Amino acid sequence: MRWPAQMILGAALTALFLAVALLSLLWVPQDVAALNIAAKLQPPSPAHPLGTDHFGRDMLSMLMVGARSSIAVALVAVGIGLAAGVPLGLLAAARHGGWIDELVMRGNDLIFAFPALVIAILITAVLGPSALNAILAIGIFNIPVFARVTRGAALSLWTLDYILAARVAGKGALRISVEHIAPNILNLLIVQGTIQFSLGILAEAGLSYVGLGAQPPTPSWGRMLAEAQTMIYTAPRLALLPGLAIVALVLGLNLLGDGLRDLLDPRLRRRSA
Amino acid sequence: MLRYAAARLVSLCLSLIAASLVIFAVIEVIPGDPAAFMLGLNAEPDTVAALREELGLNGSLPARYLGWVGGMVRGDFGLSYTYRVPVAELVAQRLWVSLPLAALALALSTLIAVPVGVIAAARRGRAADYGIMGVAQLGIAVPNFWFAMLLVLVFAVKLHWFSAGGFPGWEAGVIPALKALSLPAVALALPQAAILARVTRSALIETLGQDYIRTARAKGLSARQAIRRHALRNALIPVLTIIGLQFSFLLAGAIIIENVFYLPGLGRLIFQGITQRDLVVVESVVMLLVFAVIVVTFLVDIAYAAADPRLRHRR
């Protein structure tokens, strides 16, 4: 099987940002907490490959640490969605038509009625702005997404013969869900996880842009953009770099997600061929 | 059809009740009590007590919930604590910015995305298709608020065609008001258009694979005629769904975009409510937004049940 070029590009972009985020834990070119007003708004130079911001902080270091906060928020939010959504979806499918199923589906409809950002704003308004609450806000919205995907896929598996065989062998619904259903929907979950990861990056950027994400002095791409906006007449460069970083990472994740879906779902591959 | 509409209406009411309960509960779980939260740390105890009285916090939980919901049904959204005016009044003013903005963005996104998606589907696998889908892929990855900043950079800072933000009000005339809304509408619309174009393309490609299209071609219709007479209408059903869903994205997106352009809309109202801890405003405006989304979803459901009889019998 040939890996499509787009997917390789996506995987490379994603890997690059993950590597940068990990690297930023160990090493950044310059401390992002140290302000150096004398060196503010410098153009790119050997000492500062991407220049400095209005506080004289090294832009490359800021972007690296920003990658770490964005990725951390989005990843943990995907984790919340998986941890709560997948069991709910499995349960709903195992007890198809029962009250749990009904509850999961109606809860789903309800959450989808709230624009995601509005939920996030409501939560952060009540609990106060912080990276943790941003994670919570994005994560809650991920739960019904994973529950719905899991339930849908699990329902179609439950009609298959090998599940019937497992039931005849005396396995209970719970055991079948864990041993036979879950491993077989892993593909779908990986694809959905990639999509939610990319949506999470966008959501985190939006929240921190309006001041509801990571708080100063922790750098985040969204807040870098918010600060750059006030200086858009004098230093437009500051507004370009964090935005490009967001676009590159989200694009990478989307290309990876699309590629994985084509690769892992033969049904789709045939249709689009 | 009537039975279907009635069933949908019941579920609409249930969703509204559930949503109002959720919002009410979220405001309730605020650490401490809302009055103390709104007044901050240094408030005098009797000020807090007075606000508790004003907000009706001394009543029981169910009584307060019913009072809030009952008031909203009558159009009474409570009194904004910071502005000292009825929230309904604030909302009414702000709607004149947010609604035209969302409508403009929705129209723009549809007008761009549907034709572009059709072209891509019709020229599938050719240069035009790859070009359009490449741009769409990029469009999905661009955060709308950053795109808004780029628009400001190009059209306001460099070219001076538009102002970088602010809203003159409709009193200043329709043209200046629309001009102030145009950059925000483009910023909101383009990322949505990218999604819509992809949906249109795949819906049309799916439809073009159907037997009745082959029949249409076999009886001598050109590809273009087959698309126009048969495929397009059928392909539009999923497109309509997405347009309906996008309304909620546009509302939410407008919250951020209004902040980028300093537009006095509902989104800015929510933010001012949050920063001023004016919970009455936050609670009521959020409920209003959710109400709008639920009603639009309902209307979309009804619209395509009317368009497609098969959907009426599916649960």
What would CATH call the architecture of chain A? Orthogonal Bundle
Name of the CATH class of chain A: Mainly Alpha
CATH superfamily of the largest domain in chain B: MetI-like
* Fraction in helix of chain B: over 70%
User: What is the residue-mean pLDDT of chain B, rounded to a whole number?
Assistant: 84
Percent strand of chain B: under 5%
Structural class of chain B: mainly alpha
Query: How does the major sheet of chain B shape up?
Result: none
Largest interface: A-B, 38 and 47 residues
The number of helical runs of chain A is: 11
Please give a structural write-up.
- The complex is a heterodimer of chains A (about 270) and B (about 325).
- Chain A has about 270 residues and is an all-alpha fold.
- Chain A has one domain: MetI-like (MetI-like fold, Orthogonal Bundle), CATH 1.10.3720.
- Helix content of chain A is about 75%, strand content about 0%.
- Chain A is built from 11 helices and no strands.
- In chain A, helix 1 crosses helix 2.
- The longest helix of chain A has about 35 residues, at about 60-95.
- The radius of gyration of chain A is 22 Å and the shape is elongated.
- Mean pLDDT of chain A is about 85; it is low at about 270-273.
- By secondary structure, chain B is mainly α.
- Chain B folds into 2 domains: about 1-75, no CATH class; about 90-315, MetI-like fold.
- Chain B is built from 13 helices and no strands.
- Chain B has helices spanning about 1-30, 35-40, 45-55, 60-75, 85-120, 125-140, 145-160, 175-210, 210-220, 225-260, 265-275, 280-305, 310.
- Chain B is globular and about 85 Å long.
- The mean pLDDT of chain B is about 85.
- The interface between A and B is large, with 38 and 47 residues.
